[in-house]
Amino acid sequence: MYLSLPSRRHQSKGGQLSGKNKRKTVSRASSRKSRAESGFSRNDRGQYYDSDSDEEPRSPTKRDLFLEAELSNVDSILADDKAFDTDLEIEETTTTYDRKTDYINDCKKNGIVPASYFLRHMEKPQLTMSHHGLGEEGMKCIARSLASNTTVLNLDISDNWLGDTGGLIVCNMLKENIYITDLTLRDNRLGFGCAEQIGEVMKTNSTLTHLTLSGNQFDDKSAIFFADAITASKLEYLNLSHNRFGEIAGLLLGPAIAENTTMKELDISWNNIRRKGAMALGQGIKNNDFMKKMNVSWNGFGVEGAISLCDALKHNQVLEELNVMNCRLTTEAAVLIGKGLAVNETTALKVIKCAKSALVRISRGSSASSQKVLCPSSLMNLNVGKWNKINKRGNRTLLEELDSDGDGDINFSELATGHTEFKERTDNINTILTASQPRPLTT
What we know:
Elements: H1 8-14, H2 28-37, E1 40-42, E2 48-50, H3 62-79, H4 99-109, H5 116-121, E3 126-128, H6 135-146, E4 154-156, H7 163-176, E5 182-184, H8 195-204, E6 210-212, H9 220-232, E7 237-239, H10 247-259, E8 265-267, H11 275-287, E9 293-295, H12 302-315, E10 321-323, H13 331-343, E11 351-355, E12 358-361, H14 376-381, H15 384-390, H16 398-402, H17 412-436
Parallel strand pairs: 3-4, 4-5, 5-6, 6-7, 7-8, 8-9, 9-10, 10-11
Antiparallel strand pairs: 1-2, 11-12
Helix pairs in contact: 4-6, 6-7, 7-8, 8-9, 9-10, 10-11, 11-12, 12-13
């Protein structure tokens, strides 16, 4: 049997050994390590020799025998799990990061009054800091705290007048934070200055799924960055409404929408997209196989955009909701959209908003006859004011009047029937009024 002697270094760490099987800080790992590091072994004759030296073997001394006996006692203790006191082992300590203290100190350094609401809610999943007047400096302190925050998932910092600089601060924060999934930056006057950085965040941050950028004065020059971002983005929801996108923006965003494979809802309402830009958006809707909801209301689509939407509705098999309210759709444009709906043979499209005061819910059956749709021009020609004047019951709304089966939905057959009844009542009233006119006198 060969036995290694422990080095002095490990003896000092382990403390003095006792023959009563009591050890204070000796561990299995340190004992094995000390034996392995020692170069002294004993041969079959009971002589000790140094395996790393060329010296001749020597006879054991009293010290060698004493250490050998002590090590045998250590082996017996280590073999007994109950005798080994694990409470005496050194435990790793972790430091806790006090975010509140750090945020307060950061505010003091920058001469900013700490936001008490932020201090109370900084560890909650939903954090709403809208209308707090943060500005650039206030956002800087909050962004530093949020960069390493792992609890906030939904962040709303709308209407804080961040400007270009404040927007860049938020973008830098999002490059480090990989936990925020829903971000609202509405009405912060971000503008062209940080459009490129926002686009980079959209492309690189795979955690962010919902992004609202409405009311930030983005124009056609900014559209190029958003077009590139939409193409490669993993976002599921994007809101670019109430900006300054025009015809050029539509030409850029349309192809990007066609290539996106993750976005389920896009809101680009309240912009100035028209003519060729509107046609490009329509082509983007046509070729996108993933979009569920599309809001292009309050844009100047007109007849040109309606032609593109007609083509899109003929081929898109996935779109469930389309909002084209107040898009300068004339009767001719409405007829074109109706033709697109009539050709669409899927049941995916459930809701289309095409007039300011009406929401049409499409209910289709399996038979070919029930799949025929009513041209939206009939809806647009339906004068709600005249209908209510004709309706003598007065306590029922227009939608209740149209919903003949009382299921809460107005399908196209009910809408067609209601429109026919409306025309018949109007014709009857006109006939009565004509008959009541005094006849011309004859000689």
